[in-house]
Specification:
The protein has 18 helices and no strands. The protein is an all-alpha fold. The chain is globular.
Length: 461
């Protein structure tokens, strides 16, 4: 159980914020948000999502970072130090959660890689929706191609992790995140200039009280949780690399701002274009792989835009995947004295096997179902609805109640200019962490329990 060495530390505050934002901004913002917001009533979903992000969401980000910085080890060590042996096991569960999420996240990462390469060679774009559907279906259902792309993606993730915290993750995020932002702003601007684009903006942001249902609110909570990368030990692990002088509330606020703007930006890239071309806005997961290539085939310089878009998608997926792997790597390095290299190689082998199972569940193994779901969907369901929420709940209880003095201590550290967190901010964080966050997490978890019950009943009758 070694303390964090100087090399396992962010070199700058900006690097740390960009790496955390890189983890938060991923397929959730780019792929799920646009169609999810549309399906859930537009502003009726977006407003609670923003509210949750800047209340309970950011408070939990602060708590995870504080837990990690006080622990100065892996998530297991941090939970043990703050809460004793019982919480140590919950830390172990976070490591498992991150590993499981990565195993299926990498499958979609593989598709992003495939589409980027195909866009670059002019194959991904077509004006024929049927052809695009078949093309996507073939990739997803094929055993071999799916696995080959998955391996390329995993190799990129592991390669970054091998380079370490500063030279790998921080450098990657520092170069890629600003580039990502500029590309997305450019894409949104050109999408908004299409004739009829305004209908897409309206679809995304329209507000009506009738749309504000408990289900929409619960969906917004769940999405906030996933989009901020909470509950999988990520910010606890990243927190251990944060310098003592970095003020956590301000940094966490930035992560919230960047994550919300990325989701809104992705919505503004996709929806105006979907409406301008009269396509289905609720095409679900196929939106970015089937609907968008159609649009690219019809706009000037569409081939170039396709390459830029899939590059953004891949960057988003890569920085999130790297954060997931880091949780598991830090665990083996700190708890069992592994070298970074052997930890990464071991995970590469394990992840590859598990990811293949997820990838095959779309094609050859699609008949094998658990609770009426293919393996990929089942893993996603269990991780997002149960494992992440359970861990989020544990962090809220631990840092809000059991180890509150530790939390206060972390937040009372003066920064380089000698400033500390004000009493009012501290009190607000206390209320958020002690009361709001556990309630929000339980509500999001309830949605999962309810869904599982429904599918169990559907399978029985
Ligand atoms: N926040 C990431 C996204 O939006 C997903 C993620 C969840 C990453 C949990 C790490 C941990 O895509």
């Amino acid at each position: 159980m070694t303390a964090a060495t100087p090399s396992a530390q962010w070199s700058s505050r900006l690097g740390f914020i960009l790496a955390s934002a890189g983890s938060a901004i991923g397929l959730g913002a780019m792929w799920k948000f646009p169609y999810w917001a549309g399906e859930n009533g537009g502003a009726a979903f977006i407003i609670p999502f923003i509210l949750f992000t800047f209340t309970t969401g950011v408070v939990l980000v602060i708590a995870e970072l504080a837990l990690g910085r006080a622990g100065r080890g892996s998530v297991v060590e941090a939970m043990r130090r703050a809460g004793g042996r019982s919480f140590m096991w919950l830390g172990g569960l976070a490591v498992l959660t991150a590993f499981l999420i990565l195993s299926y996240y990498a499958v979609v990462g593989g598709w992003c890689t495939a589409y980027l390469v195909e866009a670059a060679t002019g194959q991904a774009v077509s004006a024929d929706p049927e052809e695009l559907k078949i093309h996507f279906g073939e990739l997803v259902r094929s055993g071999g191609r799916n696995i080959a792309w998955l391996m390329v993606f995993l190799a990129a993730v592991c390669g970054t992790a091998l380079c370490g915290v500063q030279r790998g993750i921080e450098r990657l995020s520092k170069i890629l995140m600003p580039g990502f932002f500029l590309l997305m702003v450019g894409l949104a601007a050109s999408s908004l200039m299409l004739p009829g684009a305004w209908d897409g903006v309206e679809y995304l942001f329209k507000f009506s009280w009738e749309d504000v249902t408990p289900e929409v609110i619960l969906n917004a909570m769940g999405f906030t949780f996933f989009s901020l990368s909470l509950g999988a030990g990520i910010l606890v692990t990243y927190g251990a690399y944060v310098k003592k002088e970095t003020p956590l509330p301000a940094a966490s606020m930035w992560v919230g701002v960047l994550s919300v703007q990325a989701a809104l930006l992705a919505g503004l890239v996709i929806m105006p274009a979907v409406f301008a071309y009269g396509l289905e806005p609720n095409a679900g997961p196929g939106l970015v792989f089937i609907t968008l290539p159609l649009i690219f085939s019809q706009i000037p310089a569409g081939g170039l835009f396709a390459v830029l878009f899939y590059l953004c998608l891949l960057v988003a997926a890569l920085t999130s995947a790297v954060s997931l792997l880091e949780v598991a790597v830090a665990f083996l390095v700190h708890e069992f004295g592994f070298s970074r290299r052997s930890a990464v190689l071991l995970y590469f082998a394990g992840l590859f096997i598990l990811s293949c199972v997820s990838a095959l569940s779309f094609g050859p193994w699609s008949g094998f179902r658990i609770f009426d779901r293919i393996i990929f969907d089942f893993l996603d369901y269990i991780c997002t609805n149960f494992l992440m929420t359970l861990n989020g709940f544990a962090v809220a209880i631990l840092m809000g109640w059991k180890a509150w003095p530790r939390m206060v201590n972390e937040l009372s550290r003066p920064d380089e200019a000698g400033r500390t967190t004000s009493k009012t901010t501290l009190a607000a964080i206390g209320v958020g962490l002690k009361w709001l966050a556990p309630l929000m997490v339980l509500a999001a978890c309830w949605e999962g329990v309810w869904g599982l019950l429904q599918s169990a009943l559907a399978a029985l009758f």
